[in-house]
């Protein structure tokens, strides 16, 4: 039986990936900070243990017995002077404990921008990489086998753009994006567990079709709810939609501005050759959300 320990199993992307892996028969251990919440939303077959990437002692207890770790953390600010960032110091803590415990393999999800900065046609830097990259380099230099999945934009995010009967796209998005989804990523992760051919390598994770954001949104709502209209709004709209904090508003504006000038090319054939092609069209994945 395949086994994996997931840090970030209750997150927006981590939760559906965890569910898909359990459906495929993987024995999953979830390292979480909120045990009560995790028990409410994770499948009953998942082993749930307490662990905080800020607390090495908790990680040592939580990770004991693990062989393969999947990291699904998220950075929403780029304050390099912060004393602690989950995707920097947090990941370094995981790596330190993993070396102590003799863990064999660590996999991590990151953005496609990390491996292909040339896709940013205006030369923009995705600022969260200022936080993410030191952790990535720390893992590469640790001696632990690593695998990075450099992912395109997730279709899973599309329902969050819907307010009432309006799918609101902020910014002018004209370039192709090879949208992926958590079901196909879970298949990729499944095929990477215990596979020494993925050690010390990075793989891009993209869908098979390159579509602009509006084109993909229209195909999504055609299945999700045909009464929903696609609307495009100027970038300054981000300041008027009532996001929960100024920090998150700044992050969303930066992220959408970056995606606006991201012109992807299809570069995932090596991933498909080793770990399998993505299976779901936009329509097929959308049906799974209904």
Automatic annotation (TrEMBL):
Domain NAD(P)-binding: from-to ranges: 8-157
Top-level lineage group: Bacteria
Transmembrane feature ranges: none
InterPro entries, A to Z: Ergot_Alk_Oxidoreductase, NAD(P)-bd_dom, NAD(P)-bd_dom_sf
PANTHER family: PRESTALK A DIFFERENTIATION PROTEIN A (PTHR43162:SF1), PTHR43162
Identification of the protein by name: NAD(P)H-binding protein
């Amino acid at each position: 039986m395949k086994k994996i320990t997931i840090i970030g199993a209750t997150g927006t992307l981590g939760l559906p990936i965890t569910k898909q892996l359990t459906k495929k028969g993987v024995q999953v251990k979830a390292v979480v900070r909120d045990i009560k919440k995790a028990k409410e939303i994770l499948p009953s077959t998942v082993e749930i243990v307490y662990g905080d990437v800020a607390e090495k002692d908790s990680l040592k207890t939580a990770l004991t017995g693990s062989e393969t770790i999947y990291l699904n953390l998220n950075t929403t600010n780029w304050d390099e002077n912060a004393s602690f960032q989950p995707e920097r110091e947090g990941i370094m803590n995981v790596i330190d404990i993993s070396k102590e415990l003799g863990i064999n393999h660590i996999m991590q999800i990151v953005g496609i921008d990390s491996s292909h900065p040339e896709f940013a046609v205006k030369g923009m830097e995705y600022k969260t990489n200022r936080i993410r990259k030191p952790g990535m380099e720390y893992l590469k230099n640790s001696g632990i086998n690593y695998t990075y999945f450099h992912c395109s934009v997730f279709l899973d995010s599309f329902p969050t753009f819907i307010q009432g009967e309006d799918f609101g796209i902020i910014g002018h998005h004209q370039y192709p994006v090879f949208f992926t989804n958590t079901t196909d990523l879970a298949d990729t992760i499944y095929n990477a567990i215990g596979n020494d051919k993925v050690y010390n390598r990075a793989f891009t994770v993209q869908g098979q079709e390159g579509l602009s954001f509006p084109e993909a949104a229209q195909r999504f709502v055609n299945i999700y709810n045909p009464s929903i209209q696609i609307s495009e709004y100027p970038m300054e709209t981000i300041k008027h939609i009532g996001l929960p904090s100024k920090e998150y508003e700044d992050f969303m504006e930066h992220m959408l501005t970056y995606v606006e000038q991201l012109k992807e090319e299809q570069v995932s054939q090596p991933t498909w050759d080793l770990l399998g092609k993505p299976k779901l069209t936009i329509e097929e994945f959308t049906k799974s959300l209904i």
